[in-house]
Amino acid sequence: METRGRTVLFLVLGLLVFSATFQDCSAAFNPFNWRKQTRSDAASSSTKHGTQNRLSSVVFPVRGNVYPDGLYYVTLFIGQPPKPYFLDIDTGSDLTWLQCDAPCVRCSKVPHPLYRPKNNLVFCQDPICASLHHPGNYRCDRPTDQCDYDIEYADSGSSLGVLLKDEFPLRLTNGSLIKPHLVFGCGYDQEFSSESVSPTDGVLGLGTGKSSFISQFQDQGLSRNVFGHCFSGRGGGFLFFGDDLVPSSGVVWTPMSKDYSSKHYSPGPAELLLGGHSTGVEGLKTVFDSGSSYTYLNNRAYHALISSMKGDLARKPLKEVPDETLPVCWKGPKPFKSISDIKKYFKPLVLRFSNGKNALMEIQPESYLIISPYGNACLGILNGAEVGLRDSNLIGDTFLRDKMLIYDNEKQQLGWMPTDCNRIPKSGTDLF
After folding, report:
1. Is residue 90 annotated as a catalytic residue, yes or no?
2. Hey, what's the torsion of the CAs at 399, 403, 408, 411, to 10 degrees?
3. In CATH, what number does 252-401 get?
4. Domain ranges of the chain
5. Which of 90, 189, 244, 408 is catalytic?
6. Considering the chain, what percentage of its residues have pLDDT values greater than 90?
7. Is 312 among the catalytic positions?
8. What CA–CA distance (Å, rounded) separates 24 from 138?
9. For the whole model, what pTM was predicted?
C-alpha cells in the first residue's frame, strides 16, 4: 500500500484490517454519489475449468525490497486492452484494490494512470459482497444495488471505494493464457498516514477470505487454493498461485492456527530464541504478514529480545548509536558496506512453533538487519506496542526474506524452506 515502509513507526503494518468496516450496499453508482458503490453480478465471462487435471499455476516476478523501498510488489495487467498496475503483496488483508478515477476524491500520485471504471460494477447479491460485510451490517435491498467497501488499516490509513469486476490476462505455467474476470476494489477516496506519493497503484490482498484473489482463482477452477512467495534479501523474488511450485520435500510444515485469528495466517504460538538460547519469550501469538516491511513484537517480547541481543554484543566492537533509519542501530569499527560485513557479530534468531511439533523457522542476521545510509547495522524488528498492536506479533518481511513461504489453504497448513529467491521459476522443476 502507498503508505507502507516509508516511516519507521507508522507503517501500514501488513494491512491487518483490525478495524476493517464495509459500508452497506446502496443505490446505483454515479460520479457524484461518493459514498455509494456496487458489485457486478457473480456470473463471470471467464471460462471455468471443471476437471482437476486442468488446474495449473501462475508465477509473478516480484520487485521491491525491505529497505529502502519498504515493500514487495507485482505487476498485474487489468482490463481490455490490458494496462499494467503495481500491487503491494499483502497476506494480511483480503481485498485487492487500486486507486481509481471514478472520479477520485483523494488519491496519491501513483506509477500509472488511475484505473477508470467501465460499467463493470459488482452487485450486492454477489456472494463476495456478502463476505466483506459483518452479517449484522449487511444490507442488499435490491439485487442490483452496488456494494461499497471502506477499509481502515492499522496505521490509520484507509480506502473507500466501489467493487468492480474486470479481466486479468495471465499466462499459466502449463503455457495456456487465461483471462479470468476477478472482483477488486476501485478506491476513489484514500487517507494516507504519511506520504502522498505511492510506489504502487494499490494492494494485492491474499488473505483467507472469499474476496482474496487466490480464493477467486479456486472458485473459478483455475488453481488450487495454495500460493507462495519468495522475497530476496537483495530485492525482487517471485509470487505464485497454485501448487505446481510446492516442493515435494524439504519444507517445514505447521498447521494454521485458528486460536488466534481465523482471518489471518497464523502458525500459532512461538518461542523466540537467539543463537540457540531462549530469550525467555514463549507463547508469542504470531501472524505471517507480507504487507509489513518489518517484524513487530509485543512490548514484553521486544524488550526481552533487545536485552538478550545487548548482552550477546557486550564484548564485541559494536556501539549502539542513534540513527534516524530505525530505533535500534549499532556502529562498527568502520562503516558497514554490506550485510556480509555484520554476520560475524550477530547470531541467528529462531522461532519455534509448538503447533507444528516444534517446527523451527531460522532467521539469519542478514534477514533481520539492514544497513543504514550511515553504515550502521539496524534492527528490522520494532515494538508493536508503539503502533497500537498491543499483544499481536507480526512476522513481516524482515523474517520472511530468502525463504519460500507456502500458504496451503486446502490442507490448512503453512510451510517454509530456504530458497534462492533470485531464481524466478517457470515451473516447479525450475526451482532446484
Report:
1. yes
2. -100
3. 2.40.70.10
4. 58-241, 252-401
5. 90
6. 70
7. no
8. 6
9. 0.87
